[in-house]
Amino acid sequence: MKTRRYLLLSLVLLAACGKTLDKPAGASKGTIGVSLLTLQNPFFKVIGDNITAEATKNGYDTLVVSADNDVVRQSNQVKDFIVKKAAAIVLSPADSKAIVPVIQEANAAGIPVFTVDVPCNEPGVKIVTQVATDNFGGGKEAATAMIEALKGGGGKIGVLDLKQVESCILRVKGFKEVLDAHNANAAQKIEIVSELDGGGLKDKGYKAAEDMLQAHPDLVGIFAINDPSALGARGALEKAGRADKVVIIAFDGQPEGRQAIKEGKMYAEPVQFPEKMGVEVVKAFIRHSKGEELPPQMLIPTSLYRQADGKADPTLK
User: Fold this and answer.
1) Half-sphere exposure of 288 (CA within 13 A, CB side)
2) Taking Cα atoms as reference points, which of 280, 278, 289, 297 lies closest to residue 127?
3) Which of its termini does the chain have fewer beta carbons within 10 Å around, N or C?
4) What is the per-residue pLDDT across 224-255, written as a single tens digit (0 to 9) for each?
5) In terms of Cα–Cα distance, which of 257, 270, 297, 250 is closest to 118?
6) Predicted pLDDT of residue 26
7) Which pLDDT belongs to residue 41?
8) 10 Å Cβ neighbour count for 30?
9) Which residues of the chain have pLDDT under 50?
10) Looking at the domain covering 31-132+274-300, what would its CATH class be?
11) CA 162 to CA 196: how far, in whole Å?
């Protein structure tokens, strides 16, 4: 009788142990570590929210953090993902060159690395794929809008850039390429007389635009690499009493930027699709985890947004 009781007890314990080893229904398949350039910019928050939603649909948890434009902070975040044995790491690098060593650490740990919005094209790192806006193509669209807004006239213009971020470098490069082609045949040339760091931020864009206007009071246009810096420039123009004299072309498509276009405070901007980027980078990880070969980059085209688009936009006031 005693033997039978011990046998039954052993079977119960074995069954219980087996149960704890099995993965419960609905358990996470792992965690995707996500370090975005800054969560102060609504654009990146949309990317992060869509990464989380798509990852949840596929059974993964996410840990989404903000690098706050600080590559040291971002490097420490990636190290933390490595220690936590993340299933994948998604980055929008704060500095595409300086982030290389920690990406190499993730590579050595066997954790797949993806970039979203901001690429890392540096040698010596393995990025599974880069999901981003076609920033170069969008920059070309921005130049087309500037030429259109100046109605065949020339003049001096400024650029509010962000040179440490690869995506912004590509935007300015595309912008300049179209302007150079235009100037080769135009009777009145559009001349870039100032390029200042707008920091991708409203307050820094304001200060940079103020400096531009002081150095070049006859400025006729400003191209800003994103909405916050463009809106900062608009504030500087209003303070200087030149809001109706200087054309602003932005880049992004955030609600505040689109609202400014609708109200005639900015002329136009190439619109990005951050929600699509967030979804596509998770889909890329799922495809990779199933052994599928991916292209080195997956580019999402922009769409030029003008005042007529703003007036027809049901999401705006």
Assistant:
1) 20
2) 297
3) N
4) 999 999 999 999 999 999 999 999 999 999 99
5) 297
6) 59
7) 85
8) 16
9) 1-25
10) alpha beta
11) 8
pLDDT value of residue 13 = 39
End-to-end CA distance of the chain: 81
Determine the residue type at 285.
F
| Entry field: residues in the chain | 317
Q: What is the CATH number of domain 135-272+306-311?
A: 3.40.50.2300
The pLDDT value recorded for residue 5 is 44
**Taking a C-beta distance cutoff of 8 angstroms, is the pair 278, 54 a contact?**
yes
- Write the pLDDT tens digit of every residue in 173-188: 999 999 999 999 999 9
Please check whether the two domains, 31-132+274-300 and 135-272+306-311, share a CATH topology. Answer: yes
The amino acid at residue 269 is E
Smallest CA-to-CA distance from 96 within 63, 135, 58, 47 is with 135
What is the C-alpha separation between 208 and 236, in angstroms, rounded? Answer: 9
Show me where the domains of the chain are located. 31-132+274-300, 135-272+306-311
